[in-house]
């Protein structure tokens, strides 16, 4: 009997220690575009929304939330893997308050980019405004937790940035303004300068754990394959090369910032190779289609073109790498998040 009591005491004591272990990363704070927007665009006057079916059909309760996916997005899975919570709420969602945001919040806006001109295209939240929301959030959290505890929370929280694809596919390669002002190389440097300054601002605001994502193989998105239809609907190699070059430059900027900003834990996470692996060898991951998307015909639909009135949407999104013509399925997001957690984020666990 005494032995059982000792064993019970041991496990109770162990359980009491778990919150202390989890406190390594008490919250995830997210900035970026549609890859990490859980619904901020629902509250913005823009045509770029996804708060309607079939978006979210595999989310909790089958409810559309504004996530550009059939279910959860990568940051949700990262939060769950770090034992924080299973989904990160949108800062502008009126259903949540500062108590919910204390353990994770996203300021991301679908359609935005580093470049202010990119956010203007579809009238979404500009990147600089996400930082202003973060400052507002900091003030609220200090009132909620107290100044000292909140400041410690900021330094220990994981600040995650995922953005950049729209600057090229929605802006540079579509509209004449930036392409007439900058060569591709110059535009990459322009964007990386913005990214670097953003991280410096986060650092000034107390952030010490920062992860910034590189670009995916954007030439292989179903929408881009469709524009390349007369050439066999292959990936657009030019766009993929731009993404790879950008990622190299971003990694260089990360290295410089780590030397400049004392005490910062800054890492770059690149989805490029893992997503390309899924695209090139889908069956290895249990997919059947990596070229077209689940929603609609799979060639060009996203946002309002991907709705319940479209009769062509697939019945099982798990067979597809892409949910709509621009965004991954929940299954793809889960695989990417698992990879990031086990590699880039291993030091934060």
TrEMBL record:
Q: Which residues form the signal peptide?
A: 1-23
The UniProt transmembrane annotation reads none
Q: Which domain of life is it from?
A: Eukaryota
**Keyword entries, A-Z:** Signal
Q: What residue ranges carry the coiled-coil annotation? A: none
Q: Name one Pfam family in it.
A: Lipase_GDSL
Say if the entry is tagged with keyword Signal.
yes
Q: Which family does this protein fall into?
A: Belongs to the 'GDSL' lipolytic enzyme family.
This chain belongs to which protein, by name? GDSL esterase/lipase At4g26790-like
Q: Which organism is it from?
A: Gossypium arboreum
Origin organism lineage:
Eukaryota, Viridiplantae, Streptophyta, Embryophyta, Tracheophyta
């Amino acid at each position: 009997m005494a032995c059982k009591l000792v064993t019970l005491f041991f496990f109770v004591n162990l359980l009491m220690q778990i919150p202390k272990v989890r406190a390594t990363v008490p919250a995830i704070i997210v900035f970026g575009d549609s890859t990490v927007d859980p619904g901020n665009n629902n509250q913005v006057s823009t045509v770029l929304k996804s708060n309607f079916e079939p978006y979210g059909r595999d989310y909790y309760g089958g409810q559309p939330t504004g996530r550009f996916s059939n279910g959860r997005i990568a940051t949700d899975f990262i939060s769950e893997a770090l034992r924080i919570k299973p989904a990160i709420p949108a800062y502008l969602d009126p259903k949540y308050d500062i108590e919910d945001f204390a353990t994770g919040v996203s300021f991301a806006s679908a359609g935005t980019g580093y470049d202010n001109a990119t956010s203007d295209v579809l009238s979404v939240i500009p990147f600089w405004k996400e930082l202003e929301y973060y400052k507002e959030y900091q003030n609220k959290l200090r009132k909620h937790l107290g100044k000292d505890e909140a400041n410690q929370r900021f330094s220990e929280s994981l600040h995650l940035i995922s953005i950049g694809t729209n600057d090229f596919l929605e802006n540079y390669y579509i509209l004449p303004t930036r392409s007439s002002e900058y060569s591709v190389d110059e535009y990459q440097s322009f964007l990386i300068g913005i990214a670097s300054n953003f991280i410096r601002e986060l650092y000034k605001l107390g952030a010490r754990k920062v992860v910034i994502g590189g670009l995916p193989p954007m030439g292989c998105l179903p929408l881009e394959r469709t524009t390349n239809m007369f050439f066999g609907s292959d990936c657009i190699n030019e766009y993929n090369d731009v993404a790879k070059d950008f990622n190299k430059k971003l990694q260089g900027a990360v290295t410089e910032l780590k030397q400049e900003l004392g005490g910062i834990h800054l890492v770059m996470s690149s989805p490029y190779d893992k997503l390309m692996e899924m695209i090139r060898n889908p069956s290895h991951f249990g997919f059947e289609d990596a070229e077209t998307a689940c929603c609609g015909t799979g060639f060009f639909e996203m946002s309002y073109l991907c709705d319940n009135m479209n009769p062509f949407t697939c019945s099982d999104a798990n067979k597809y790498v892409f949910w709509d013509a621009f965004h991954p399925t929940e299954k793809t997001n889960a695989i990417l998040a698992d990879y990031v957690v086990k590699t880039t984020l291993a030091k934060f666990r």
